[in-house]
Specification:
74 residues; mainly alpha; rod-shaped
Length: 74
């Protein structure tokens, strides 16, 4: 079907639509899907980076500190 044949059908379909009704359509779905994939990738990257963090919590004041670990040259 050529574009010249499809255009009148689209015009007729557009006239039948309710002008007060707004729908997101295919573009809205594509934008939502892209955002969902981007958030998923960001969460995956964040989990990978948080797994690499080496964090030791400071002891509470008033508790005896453990013996210091010997360095590599000792």
């Amino acid at each position: 079907m050529s574009a010249h044949q499809a255009l009148p059908q689209l015009v007729l379909a557009a006239e039948e639509l309710d002008k007060n009704k707004v729908t997101p359509g295919v573009l809205g779905f594509v934008v939502f899907a892209v955002l969902a994939v981007a958030v998923w990738l960001l969460m995956k990257s964040m989990n990978r980076h948080m797994g690499r963090v080496d964090f030791e919590e400071a002891p509470e004041p008033g508790t005896p500190s453990p013996a210091p670990k010997p360095g590599p040259g000792k």
